[in-house]
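Forwarding the complex inputs:
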Amino acid sequence: MAEYRLLTRDIGTEGLQTLPVYERKGGYQALRTALKERTPDEIVEQVKLSGLRGRGGAGFPTGTKWSFLPRDIFPRYLCINADESEPACFKDRYLIDENPHQLIEGILIAAYALQVRHAFLYIRGEYHDQRLLLERCVEEARRAGYVGERILGTDFVCDIIVHGGAGAYICGEETALIDSLEGYRGQPRLKPPFPAVKGLYGKPTVVNNVETLSNLPHIVGNGGEWFKAIGAERSTGTRLWCCSGHIERPGCYEMELGSPIRELFEEHCGGVWKGRALKAFQPGGGSMQVLLPEHLDLPLDMDAVMKAGSSLGAGAMMFMDETTCLVNVSMRLVDFYHHESCGKCAPCREGTYFESKLMHKLEAGVATLDELGTLADICANMDGKCFCPLGDTATWFVMSAYRAFREEFEAHCGAEGCPVAREHRPLLAGHA
Amino acid sequence: MTDATPPSPPDDGRVEITIDGRVHRAPKGQLVLDAATDVGVHIPIYCAHPKMDPVAVCRMCLVQVEKMPKLQPACATYVSEGMVVHTQTGPVATAREGVLEFLLLNHPLDCPVCDRGGECDLQDFTVRYGPETSRMPITDKVHFDKAVPLSDRIELDQERCILCWRCVRYYDEITGEKEIVLQERGVRTSVATFDGRPLRSAFQGNLPEVCPVGALTHRQYRFVARPWDLQRARSICPECSYGCNINIDSREYEVRRFASRDNPLVDDMWLCDRGRYSAPRWNRTERVRRAAVRTAGGEQEVTIEHALREAGRRLREVRDQHGANAIGVLGSVECTNEEAWLLQRVARDALGTSHLDHQLEAFPGLSPEEHALGIAEIEDCSAVVVLGSRPEQQAPVLTLRLHKAQRKRGTAVHRLPSEVDDATVRGITGQRLVGVIADESDRARAAHVAQLLGAGNTEVRRLTVTRGVNGRGCKDVGLLPNLLPGYRPAPGAGRCGTEILEATSAGQIRALLIMGSHPWAAGAGVALTGALNAADLVVAIETVPGPVSHAATVLIPGHTHVEKAGSVTNLEGRVQRIRAALPPATAAPSELRVLAILAAELGCESWPAETIAVHREIAAALPAYAAAGNGGRAGWLVPTQ
Amino acid sequence: MLAAQTRAEIERARQRYPSPRSAILPSLWAVQNELSWLPPEAMAEVAELLGIVPSEVQAVATFYSMYFKHPPGRHHVLVCVQAACALRGADETVAYIERRLGCPSGSTTADGMFTWESTIECLGACGGAPMMQVDHHFEENLTPERIDAILARVAAEPATHHGPGG
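Prediction (whole assembly, three chains):
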């Protein structure tokens, strides 16, 4: 198990973002196979067989998600979640920037399998250039007969509508995405009913992530059985890892699932920069719990990492060297959730505010030990009590860091400034 | 083969649920919150509202449900077979305390100067379930605008707001006007109007009642009273014939506010602003307080006994000299059923005149069919035709019922001009039940439209918006020239209100007995002035000074709507009680006793003079009223002989 | 108040969706492209074009962070200070830009050229940290020299769009 370039295989090819080059690389052949040689149900079966799990964060089996759609209610809708906003995640942007037609082909295959005529691609507002690129590529595909009426001469009809967000992390939550797409404030909906039953415009809806859908041309082209052989038993295929922080070579790397984290960290990322030691890392993105150097030998396997108390989430890896203040990092993540709380439910709206106030005091070294206790208490009162996972996850990193670096947190109390920064002042900054 | 499946219990549409050890068969589709209420378990709520869809945003109602990993909001969790719910466990108590800490985090805690103090769910639940102190320094609180006038009626305190979404949902689900929305997000979220523009809704007054805290308050009630200083009387809104149930809250002999009193069959807990904010008019200090007799020598204050004796003597004189039909009797739509009943008896039985009415206009061909459609039945209609804008102008809360029927039951509401052409009406398709709603002046058009719609097996029912709080009851009990109690045709050619005044001016009618001219006096204009000038005798029972009291030969003080008890009948025939909220502004006996004494002066002894006794007499005469009891609809059949 | 072109763009957006309300975000982008921000009158006009109530447009417009409720400068600079960028010196980047532009985060330079702010919201370029967006284009691996060059280049360009429009 090692680097495995599946979704990124052709990346680097000059002009891959244009249709002719994508086609020359074998692009849209899988769509042709799907439309001409497979029934929609056969594709659903292949996807189930492949073991593909969602790449958006929750890791739910894609084929199973698809099979929740009631069989006889039409129209149905497909939403593509390109609202990537999880701190430290940038793989969807990378896939869009580098291989947009692969995504469009994946969307069309999913739309065919699910018998959907309208696919809405919801892309975060900040991905402005990516949105323009996708719009251009959809038009290119339309002119070539891949999008629109009678696709490839078959009865299959599908339009892809690229919909730009306007700056709201919560719209990555699938029901909030649907509310936003319908023209409301993007706030999560009560479940049930689940989107599969009553989603966009009250119709059965599937919401899939960019990376998830980018896998489909490969699954259809090579078969579910073939795909299943890649990766680990319950985490099949590859994933793109967004590597950031104190490493020599930050960037996006595709690895087979099941490979050791250490391989990603040492061989691709080049280890910790400036010859320093690793203090901690956060897999999965801003929501997930902190892991320690001893966890580097864990496999990149969703279940294994979950057992260690964290998650592979949306495929991020943020590495922190020995000079890092975990209180400072926690503070920034808490601030993020405070900034992005939609305000719908009281524990998240008020809790993230109080959390943020306490974290700023703590990082400034003016909090008391009692207030540190209050912080833990507040987090406990939020976790599991909020309307949607945003409020719950707003507590996960800070609480895991507090558990793992208790002394460091306590040392901040009454320290009149950040004790870690004091020790490492010249080292903390990137441009030391 | 043997059938191994045990017999399944009969499906009675219910599931078994256990809440805090209490086993209950709850109807399928019921929310845990409502099931808890049914078994007597209290669950605190803020965002949940009995008239609105669940949103589960405040998280106050979190409860423990066995086999579910997280606490669940009772307001949005539906009962299921075998569900076991706990509301009194440690995790639930911790969650409640936690949520209250969050809700109070940025709340100003200005209860001492808050109008809601004493009837505030945030106060009450904090005392019951909340933390003892605030752990966030007061200096960290987020500040918003306080005392923002949203209109001339409503004030918003954004700091007190706990963002339960009720006002937003009220404007979305109940009125459909969407005047208040949420803006910004996260901790900066607030409720607001577009660009800060004033509210224009005719139903703003419901907002402070919808609000669970003191964020939305009545400007009229600002700093006026504490709830524990208020005395409450259950009554009916006096402003129109819709019959909204209200509480009249008074303090120190003044009405301070009208509050809603949910009757799902009538108001569904909503009042219109015209009704709600009419409260101060009952505090008028300009009142008729003492009995008086006017002679050539001028006006003289007398005792009630003297006044009634004088009234009886003078009325007998007119009857003896000119005949009974030289006397006209005029009540008003503000008479209770009991008053209207006795007044028509005075006219018919004691005086013997056929000229009596409760308003100015004539009502030819009046029948109870015009009131067949019930308010709540609007929701059962596949389509409803509303003729003209007057029905909703006169009975505004009707608009909300129409909106509810539209939103929840898919009722097609057709608002048509009252002079609508037949082709348009024929174009309306409806199954089962179709409603036609019009006001009194469009009775004939409504009958025609109903006839056009009533083809095939579609049933058409009409609802006529009567005028005044008891215009309907006055008709039912026969305070009409052409109809006896129960819509039986009256003998003789009685004159309607306008005709009585005209005949008085013309000298054909010589004496008037008037009770409560206020609702129609202004509209009568010169006809009234002419009649008062020409009449030999005016006996008046009046509450406020006006042309009638100034011209009265014998004047007896009357009681206002908020000073008397009795029953009134709303436009759909619902017989509802009003109760005295204020002590009377006069020492005079009730109108019922006044009429009974007057009857005695006219030779009819032993009439009932207590509300209950008069009501029994009505019930005995009108089976529909006996069946209606208190709060039911008088279900009229076409009168039988 | 909106230009015919903007109104036409809103109408095209309206046609794209099964429900006109879905066109709110694209419509607001079109307005911001034309006017550089969202005045209340424009929101009311959008509401009219989409057949909804103005308050609903306001509710949506204020929910999202990228719409301007006040007129911004000619160019917009957004610097990420979320953890992954902070680990690689985002605080220094912010300090440098503040010195360079001479006004604090969240404000506009005196000449109206730049509105800039630091944001805790991850902009999705952690592999190129520290980073910023200038008029919605990604600028990664920032150094003081690169920042100087970018700002000088942008200042010479005309104010273009303020959202993902045309």
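Helices of chain C lie at 4-16, 24-35, 40-50, 54-61, 83-86, 90-101, 144-156.
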